[in-house]
Design a protein that fits this description.
The structure holds two protein chains of two kinds. Chain A has eight helices and twelve strands. Chain A is elongated, with a radius of gyration of 21 Å. Chain B is an alpha/beta fold. Chain B folds into three domains: 63 residues, Winged helix-like DNA-binding domain superfamily/Winged helix DNA-binding domain (Arc Repressor Mutant, subunit A, Orthogonal Bundle); 131 residues, 2-Layer Sandwich (Nucleotidyltransferase, domain 5), CATH 3.30.420; 172 residues, ATPase, nucleotide binding domain (Nucleotidyltransferase, domain 5), CATH 3.30.420.40. Helix content of chain B is 40%, strand content 20%. Chain B contains 13 helices and 15 strands. Chain B is globular. The chains are: A alpha/beta, B alpha/beta. At the A-B interface, α1, β2, α2 and α7 of A face β5, α4, α10 and α12 of B. β2 of chain A pairs antiparallel with β5 of chain B.
Chain lengths: 262, 405
Amino acid sequence: MTDQGASIGLVTRRDHDGDPVAEAIVRAIAGPLVAAGMRFVTRSVTDEESELRAYRLWARVGGIAGVILLGAVDRDARIELLRQIDMPFVALAPASVDVDYPAVTVDGTAASTALTAFLRSRPAARWVYVTALPAPEPFGLDGDESDHAIEIVHTDDVAGEAVSIGASASSPIALIVDDDHDAVAVLGGLEERGVRVPQDVALICWSDSLGCQSARRPITAIDRRGREIGALLGAAAIAAIHNDEAGTVAAPEPVVVVREST
Amino acid sequence: MTPPRRLGPSSANTRSVVLDMVRSGGTVTRTDLAERSGLTPTSIARIVKSLIEDGLVVEVGFLDSTGGKRSSLLELNTAGRFAVGLSLDAGRLTYVVTDLAGTVIGRLVSPGIEEGAPKEDVVRIARELGQLLVQLDIPLESVLGLGVAGAGLDLGAGAERLSLTATEWESFALSKALEPKIGLPVVRDNDAACAALGQYWAGRVPATQDFATLYLSNGFGLGLMVGGRVARGASSNVGEIGHMIIDIDGPQCWCGARGCLEMLAAPRAVVAAALTDDDLAVQLGLSRDPQRFRADFEAIARAAARGEPRCCALIQRSALYVAAAMLSIVNVLDLDRIVLAGPGFADAGAIYVREIRDYAARFARTRAIHPVVIELADPGLDAAAGGAATLALQHALTPHAAVVP
């Protein structure tokens, strides 16, 4: 069977727009597909019902040989539908989800594990994660016997709060923020207050991006391996439409990319 | 406050201008439009009525009453019409479908034009576009047009010359060949101009600000927005920055000159430099295949982004040449914003941003008067296709603002 001209489909949710990891994943999926002479179709929707409608449409009009599913959960209605309409698929799923389908799985605690190992190698007396997320990713510090404990500060004003914490710290501190916009704002705010980065405050961004890399002082960040995950999903999708036994593949582990802010 | 824009009632573009005011104004009333345009309330009422009938504008509610008749609120009917942008690239074709607000509805990525003959590719493009619209559930009648972004010179009559890679595209009249096959108007421009237009239309750059977009794919292109319009020049070929001479004793360029930016800093030059280091070439798995130089460049750029020192040095060298070229652009045009876009900046764009920013901060003649903002477009890979969709939208909806390339 030739892959020339076959299409793989992906439905994305608009609430993921701007998420650098999700965007890196989606961009990278096309690589292996185009190299195999295939096409990659994406449809942007607002909610799950619209996503299900898109799959039904694709089954009806044809032309989509298989789909890639992002963010699979237990008892996922999308998977049920894809099986009903006999559409081959591969999913990106947290490692905590039981999967009996082709999937690339991501360990939700791996990023925090990598970050914790990095922080332990640094002199900061305090680690403070300032976040606007209602349920930030777990920090994986259970059983941690070090002297440190991560402090999590929830706020809608991440940059303002982080600058305030950094400027009032009496000893070296490590600040972790959610995204590059916050990180760049914190960097500027600390400099305005005369706080030295990284000597007084080490700054780390939870997800790496071109924004972190191109900041006036490049910002240390966690590379969540979006590009590699996307490439794995693309390759797994090709296998899925061939009915190959793709099974489950673990995503590569995140790494801390050390730059001038730490 | 922006002064009202006075329009003559006989202006052929009045409808287009009013629609553009609705688009850029978000939610407006007929009174707002009359004040901003200088047209009479009667003229505005007539134009708005026709825009509503055509499905381009919708009434979304009413202003709170101040005693008299409540004014209805008008908005662009974003889901009423769509546009498609196509980035015609050697490595891949990227189609982007947007609504009237420029929101991306869907995309298609397919193999590039590298090995195909133009006539065959046009047939493929028509087929892929038709399938994409069906898969997005968008009727052809609701699509305003197709914008096409591609590298190379505009030779007139819709023909374009793609640089270096696709000689068969020389003098091929793309628009003329494509329009009858897809049943849509086709408008084309170079990828850098499209990327600049996309940034402007999406509101990522203030409407009042002149700026340039540096686009990197196989080579470099410069899109220049002045006064809210793409600068075009005598033959719609503004922006051939790849042939800015950086070193008069430099390598011979295919254009006939020596030491062009493209020969010193474009992906082929970076790959050629990397291939002189056998150990690095093996380590990165470089193909040494001239047809696969883009993949090899991506491998080098990715390694540079990870901090591999030899790759960092290669990209930094390229970035220094680019910084010198962009400094000249900043000095000549007194720009305060440069946007980097295109697949060539997807992995190591940050290194280019830092070098250009550093050069501008240290050497720009106007450095004591204003800073120069250097930033990466988001998302780099789709900038040209998204901008091409904008080109189609602008061409169909607000022709007063568009100059036919």
